[in-house]
Design goal:
Blueprint: E1 20-25, H1 29-33, H2 40-56, E2 61-66, H3 78-83, E3 90-92, H4 101-110, E4 114-119, H5 122-135, E5 139-142, H6 152-165, H7 172-180, H8 189-198, H9 204-211
Length: about 220
């Protein structure tokens, strides 16, 4: 068994730790509470797992909120802040985050050409910056199981629109597998495995059995 050499990140057409940024937009109580396209508990669990994946693989993270400083909305949900305590949120008033200068500076400052993106709601705060980022030449990967819309129809229509524009739809566990890629990359194996077990994924039992660890227990 011989793995091929690890690819140079900037030349890799797949997601890799050295070529991707995680962008999370508006995971706040008002947005979470009005999602109707998927179960709220699953949505929260999936975006937390996605954030933990970014930490495991040392990805830059851009976290944005809307209308916190104006007093209109509460800040990022505590489950996500607990995972990203050192990531300062970029607050804005614009529905389209791509029309906020501080947000743009954070994304461009990460200097990665692939954006892994989650946002609430799908039909607005995911849709608009995705279209703008694509127009600017970024590769954009909406994480469909960490997104939610106010209706299932609105969610699906927005995903169809970004897909037609060139976005590359994915899921949080696919992102994790794409970043890991090879079990020989031992420095991230335990974080990858622990995340799958802690979030009780359908395949987490297998990783728990492999590691001799009971699912959900240390």
């Amino acid at each position: 068994m011989r793995s091929t050499p690890q690819r140079e990140a900037l030349a890799d057409h797949l997601l890799a730790p050295g070529n991707a940024t995680l962008v999370l937009i508006d995971y706040q109580p008002p947005q979470i509470s009005t999602v109707r396209s998927m179960n709220t508990g699953d949505l929260v669990a999936n975006v937390v797992a996605l954030a933990k994946t970014a930490i495991t693989f040392d990805l830059p993270v851009v976290l944005s909120t809307v209308n916190v400083s104006t007093g209109v909305n509460a800040d990022t949900i505590p489950q996500l802040r607990a995972v990203l305590p050192d990531v300062p949120p970029v607050d804005r008033t614009s529905i389209n985050a791509w029309e906020d200068e501080d947000f743009l500076a954070a994304v461009r400052g990460a200097d990665r050409n692939k954006l892994i993106i989650g946002a609430l709601w799908t039909e607005a705060c995911l849709l608009f910056p995705t279209l703008d980022a694509l127009a600017e030449g970024y590769e954009v990967y909406p994480v469909v199981d960490a997104l939610g819309g106010t209706t299932k129809v609105a969610h699906e229509a927005a995903l169809a629109r970004v897909h037609q524009a060139g976005a590359r739809l994915t899921s949080w566990n696919s992102v994790a597998c794409e970043l890991q890629r090879d079990w020989n990359r031992s420095s991230t194996v335990e974080g990858f495995r622990r995340n799958a077990i802690d979030h009780r994924t359908a395949w987490g039992w297998y990783l728990a059995m492999e590691s001799g660890t009971a699912a959900g227990k240390d």
